[in-house]
Design goal:
Low-confidence stretches: 4-9
Number of helices: 14
Distance between the termini: 39 Å
Number of domains: 1
Oligomer: single chain
Number of strands: 0
Mean pLDDT: 84
Shape: globular
Strand content: under 5%
Structural class: mainly alpha
Order of helices and strands: HHHHHHHHHHHHHH
Length: 335
């Protein structure tokens, strides 16, 4: 009589082991892609010239960029906290808990694919009496509004600065990201699209998967009633992107790249969009490709553009140090 539960437990164990092995394999593949792409770009750009550019960076400009990171992270934390207003009444965790979750997620996401930081945020929030669907919806909306802010900033900069060099891929990349944001907006605000999505959810195999997808859809669509929060978060996201542009501008000046500020407003959002694609670790590889491609259009040498990309990623890692401290000293869940 106990054979059926035993077989079920054994099957569950095999499934978990398979998922764990698959996750490890995916991380190894992403690490290989990151190292391979970065090594190739650095090799083509002349490793000695890249190292010389990094070592000769002006400390004053580096310090200015580092100071901007503090405002960057604070705004990112605030915008996610504001999105939690859509949670069920009485389920929002204390401010200190939310802040800790955010900073640890930035550290986790820097050394695993970007989706890992999002998954950690959703998982950790659900451990504090928040429905898993609501925690996942807050993270998903944070990501969508972040992408929308990059698209808006890059598109406006390119439109208002026709002197900035561009090619068809810059427009194509922004258009693709913008189309994704448009689809998300339709799902959130259109009742017809919501009903269509619900019908697709009911066609999913397995009752548990259907319930999870239906709960997530309902939680995401709840944001249609929170216009004020969405506007504030989008404004904060735009300010975050402006801070990142200024960080890149300071880093460029530190290594002797002299370009108009409008060039950075056009190129950095596109670069960050490419770095968000979860195929590498911490934007390594994709970041180098994006910087060499875009700043090459403006006449920047490959070695200087590569050095700038490495400094930009290193600066992002510096912003994760508070999360690293919390991860190593307090957060068992992340480990």
């Amino acid at each position: 009589m106990n054979q059926e539960p035993a077989r079920t437990d054994e099957a569950t164990g095999r499934s978990r082991r398979s998922l764990s092995q698959g996750g490890r394999l995916a991380r190894v593949i992403r690490l290989i892609v990151a190292v391979g792409l970065t090594s190739y770009i650095v090799w083509k750009a002349n490793p000695q010239a890249v190292l010389q550019a990094v070592r000769g960076a002006h400390s004053g400009w580096i310090a200015a960029a580092t100071a901007l990171v503090l405002f960057d992270r604070a705004l990112m934390a605030w915008r996610w906290i504001d999105l939690l207003a859509a949670l069920s009444p009485g389920t929002r965790p204390p401010f200190a808990v939310v802040l800790r979750i955010f900073f640890v997620s930035t550290f986790v996401g820097s050394f695993l694919p970007s989706v890992a930081g999002d998954a950690y945020r959703a998982y950790s929030l659900s451990r504090h009496q928040v429905r898993a669907s609501e925690s996942a919806a807050s993270v998903l909306m944070d990501r969508i509004l972040g992408v929308l802010s990059m698209v808006l900033l890059g598109a406006v900069a390119l439109a208002l600065a026709p002197e900035v060099p561009r090619d068809r891929w810059t427009t194509l990349w922004l258009t693709a990201a913008g189309a994704g944001c448009l689809v998300a907006a339709v799902v959130v605000f259109s009742d017809r699209a919501g009903r269509l999505l619900e019908s697709q959810v009911r066609a999913l195999p397995g009752g548990r998967l259907q319930r999870a997808a239906s709960s997530l859809t309902e939680a995401v669509r709840r944001y249609a009633r929170h216009h004020g929060e969405l506007v504030r978060v989008l404004a904060a996201s735009l300010l975050v992107q402006c801070l990142r542009v200024l960080q890149a501008f300071c880093l460029a000046r530190a290594i002797g790249i002299i370009l108009p500020l409008t060039t950075f407003f056009a190129y950095i959002p596109i670069s960050v969009l490419l770095m968000q694609v979860p195929v590498t670790v911490s934007g390594l590889g994709t970041g180098q490709v994006a910087f060499v491609w875009l700043f090459g259009l403006a006449g920047v040498r490959a070695d200087a553009a590569t050095a700038l990309s490495l400094l930009f990623i290193a600066l992002a890692v510096v912003g994760t140090l508070p999360g690293a401290f919390l991860y190593l000293t307090r957060d068992r869940a992340a480990r």
